[in-house]
Specification:
The chain is α+β, with helices and mostly antiparallel strands. It has eight helices and seven strands. The protein has a domain at about 130-240: Chitinase A, domain 3, CATH 3.10.50. About 40% of the residues lie in helices and about 15% in strands. Strands 1, 2, 3, 4, 5, 6 and 7 form a seven-stranded antiparallel sheet that branches. A hairpin with a 5-residue loop joins strand 3 (about 155-165) and strand 4 (about 170). The radius of gyration is 29 Å and the shape is extended.
Length: about 250
């Protein structure tokens, strides 16, 4: 304790000189930049943001009044108070309330995406390199391969990048620096159909409508009713057909 006190007194005695020295500190070439520092207030605010994101507050579309009420409940819990309405009794009604709020948000999002999808595919018709299939899938061969095309029962090895219509990237094997490998009949329908259109060593661009992707449910990072765009490199094909058995050795008579 005495050492800490003496150190504090020494800094105070230096006054403006210590402050000037501190202000002149620089990061030398080759040295890592100093880690940013945050106040307790900033950390608490960020923690609140994190909680809001994790529980999906955006989807509930709370008004300012709703948020004030929500904070009143959080404050009561943080102070160790009991549930104001007995959670066991209010639980079913709260579940129904949350489902209605989320349902309304998803319905609005679906309607918005339907309009965006229609406009996108209408514009896509102008690209003569894009092929439209009866299923609704659209594709474009970016690079012709020199191998065979896969069958639905084959396992394919690919590198790919998946984006939404606004360019948001939701998945990338390239960023993971590891190709993906999976049976072609165990992925979304748009992939099962589309990857059969490209040969080994080729590259294809898939435009997958919601019905051939994740539909109205969406997926992690993919909102409901989203059209998906994939850039895929078909690296290898592993046939599901087993190799023929070797003939049995002849027996002596």
């Amino acid at each position: 304790m005495k050492l800490k006190l003496l150190a504090t007194l020494s800094i105070l005695a230096l006054g403006p000189v210590a402050l000037r020295v501190q202000a002149q500190q620089v990061t030398l070439p080759g040295q890592p930049a100093p880690a940013p520092t945050f106040t307790d207030t900033q950390l608490v605010e960020e923690f609140g943001w994190f909680i809001g994101k994790r529980v999906g507050l955006t989807e509930l579309e709370f008004s300012e009044a709703d948020l004030d009420t929500l904070l009143r409940g959080i404050r009561a819990a943080a102070m160790g108070k009991d549930s104001p309405y007995e959670l066991e009794k209010i639980g079913p009604a709260m579940d129904e309330f949350m489902q209605k709020r989320q349902g309304a948000y998803l319905a609005k999002l679906k309607t918005k995406n339907e309009g965006a999808n229609a406009a996108y595919f209408a514009k896509l018709k102008e690209n003569k390199a894009v092929v439209a299939l009866p299923s609704g899938l659209h594709y474009e061969i970016i690079k012709q391969g020199d191998g065979t095309t896969p069958r639905p029962t084959d396992t394919v090895k690919v590198h790919y990048v998946g984006t939404l219509l606004d360019g948001t990237e939701f998945d990338s094997s390239i960023k993971r620096n590891e190709p993906a490998e999976f049976p072609l009949d165990q992925v979304i329908p748009g992939w099962t159909e589309g990857i059969q259109k490209v040969t080994k060593g080729g590259k294809i661009k898939l435009y997958v409508p919601p019905a051939l992707g994740y539909g109205d449910q969406g997926n992690s990072g993919i909102p409901p009713g989203s059209t998906l765009v994939f850039d895929v490199d078909l690296l290898d094909i592993k046939s599901a057909t087993p190799a023929p058995a070797a003939p049995a050795p002849a027996t002596k008579k």
